[in-house]
Automatic annotation (TrEMBL):
PANTHER family: BIFUNCTIONAL OLIGORIBONUCLEASE AND PAP PHOSPHATASE NRNA. This is Bifunctional oligoribonuclease/PAP phosphatase NrnA. It comes from Flavobacterium macacae. Residues 248-330 form the DHHA1 domain. Pfam families: DHH (PF01368), DHHA1 (PF02272). GO terms for molecular function: nucleic acid binding. It comes from the Bacteria. Residues 18-169 form the DDH domain. InterPro entries: DDH_dom, DHH_sf, DHHA1_dom, Oligoribo/pAp-PDE_c-di-AMP_PDE.
Length: 336
């Protein structure tokens, strides 16, 4: 961040303010970890902070400190809109365009309070008074740690903030294995452990909390996998009926897409999940190496993300969406 930006942010934060902190819709570990980490930090600076999520966060993140105070816009639109309208500063974390908040975008578009964006996705929109955006970072949580460092307030970091930030670093880096994991990521993680974040407990809370049904759903997803060795591609489909059969709850399909990449020779994996309630097919893409799934998701499936992890959606039926996908495959260059 540039010095004058830090100065500008300091001017905004110099006196106690009402501050809303917003993650993207269907928030993941990084979105919730970064917003809650920042929330605890801002409270220590005597601000009246609140995290407002566009919709419900998954159960496997409900242990995060402060998550019980999070407001859910889609559960109580009118009242939450009022809280947003009363905010004097708005932080948007872990997304690059207001439409990533779904219907909440309509409320956000009308606000006059200054926005501060902290994010690591490509092509940030230009809505914020201050934009701290850098795709080099593996997680927004690592950036929030840097943000606090830039403000020269590291002395306010504590075990609670550290646990939130550590969570997003772990989840967005695939437990420190994705290529965006740098030596600096490990230095930040080490500092968070020194502050009291409990590595083993956090991993257990995130990854060892499966329900029996979730594992059965995973089993079905793996059985549904199709592999195209000639395109170095695999994909998984899940129908709404299958989700219902295994008593799907939010978060149950998280991470399933990655199994496609664990097959030898596969560099591109997708999962197509039917969502009858929203009338869409939600899609996740993952890749290894230089095959750019952000570009792919933008071009064909109304989405975006990062080079190796992106998402999108389709308004067509599940079968039609997959038919489109299969026909697009032959137009791709997988020798990148
Ligand atoms: P996931 O597949 O885990 O939902 O998301 C992978 C990455 O792509 C995340 O960084 C997420 O923010 C981004 N992403 C997921 N869905 C969408 C989408 O519909 N639009 C855009 N622009 N990005 C998405
Ligand atoms: Mn993220």
């Amino acid at each position: 961040m540039k010095e004058e930006e830090i100065k500008g942010i300091w001017e905004l934060l110099a006196t106690p303010k009402k501050i809303a902190i917003i993650p993207h819709r269907s928030p993941d570990g990084d979105a919730m970890g970064s917003t809650l980490g920042l929330y605890h930090f801002l409270k220590k600076l005597n601000h009246e902070a609140i995290v407002i999520a566009p919709n419900e966060f998954p159960e496997f993140l409900a242990w995060l400190p402060g998550s019980e105070k999070v407001l859910i816009f889609e559960k109580d639109k009118e009242n939450v809109a009022k809280v947003l309208q009363g905010a004097e500063v708005i932080f948007t974390l872990d997304f690059n365009a207001l439409h990533r908040t779904g219907e909440m975008e309509n409320v956000l578009n009308k606000l006059t309070a200054p926005f501060i964006m902290i994010d690591h996705h490509q092509k940030p929109d230009d809505y914020a008074a201050f934009t701290y955006s850098n795709t080099k970072f593996g997680s927004t949580c690592e950036m929030v740690y840097n943000f606090i460092t830039y403000l020269e307030k590291k002395e306010l970091l504590d075990e609670t903030i550290a646990s939130c930030l550590y969570t997003g670093i772990v989840t967005d880096s695939g437990s420190f294995r994705f290529p965006t994991t740098t030596s600096e990521t490990h230095r930040v993680a080490a500092a968070l452990l020194d502050l009291g974040a409990r590595n083993g407990d956090i991993h257990n809370s995130l990854f060892d909390n499966n329900s029996y049904h979730r594992l059965q759903l995973l089993g079905r997803a793996l059985q549904n996998m199709k592999v195209f060795p000639e395109f170095k591609t695999s994909y998984i489909r899940l129908t709404q009926q299958e989700l219902d059969e295994f008593k799907y709850v939010k978060g149950d399909t998280e991470g399933i897409v990655n199994y496609g990449l664990t097959i030898k020779g596969i560099i591109f994996a997708a999962i197509f999940i039917e969502n009858k309630e929203e009338g869409i097919v939600k899609i996740s893409f993952r890749s290894q190496g230089n095959f750019d799934v952000n570009q792919f998701a933008r071009q064909y499936f109304n989405g975006g993300g990062h080079i190796n992890a992106a998402g999108g959606k389709s308004n067509k039926s599940l079968d039609e969406t997959i038919k489109d996908f299969e026909s697009i495959l032959s137009q791709q260059n997988f020798n990148v």
